[in-house]
Design a protein that fits this description.
Blueprint: H1 3-24, H2 32-48, H3 51-54, H4 64-84, H5 100-113, H6 120-137, H7 142-162
Helix pairs in contact: 1-4, 1-7, 2-4, 4-6, 4-7, 5-6
Length: about 160
């Protein structure tokens, strides 16, 4: 994801977050920790779609479409958290790590320390780099991620309007 793509999605996410805040009558700044928790939950939901990573006893295959949907749910919260942290620029820098299981632990660790960070931008960048690398390892292209994000963004607006989540 290049900086132009990041800025575009970040702006779109900001619009959704503002819409949610206004429609619920809440100040989204008061819900920063909840979005970090939501990111952790969404990442765990993604992992549930990847039995090859941990279900050594199972022959279940990955459902790539469902995995992409869960991956993009995480992107929504990553962008929202980036907006909370006033991250206005981001450029994907592919990490050296390549073992999927170790990347999982790295992502989980980075998420868990976000609330305690004194200098959150470097940790946010590390988290985003590894999250995007994880998606890359799952076979998702940047275009697929962006297209899925845009589709899910529409779904998220519709859910807010209908009240059905």
């Amino acid at each position: 994801m290049n900086n132009e793509q990041y800025k575009r999605l970040s702006k779109i996410q900001s619009g959704l977050d503002n819409y949610i805040g206004e429609s619920k009558g809440i100040d989204m700044k008061d819900y920063k920790l909840e979005r970090i928790i939501a990111l952790q939950v969404e990442f765990n939901e993604l992992l549930q779609e990847l039995p090859f990573l941990f279900k050594y006893w199972s022959n279940k295959e990955m459902n790539k479409e469902k995995a992409l949907e869960e991956f993009v749910d995480g992107i929504h919260f990553l962008l929202s958290i980036g907006n909370d942290l006033n991250i206005t620029d981001y450029e994907y820098d592919r990490p050296e790590a390549h073992d999927m299981k170790k990347i999982v632990f790295g992502i989980q660790n980075a998420i868990s320390i976000l609330p305690e960070m004194n200098v959150p931008k470097p940790m946010y960048n590390v988290l985003m780099h590894h999250y995007l690398l994880f998606g890359e390892k799952l076979g998702f292209t940047t275009d697929q991620i962006i297209d899925a994000y845009m589709s899910k963004n529409e779904v998220n607006y519709a859910r807010q309007e209908s009240g059905v989540y």
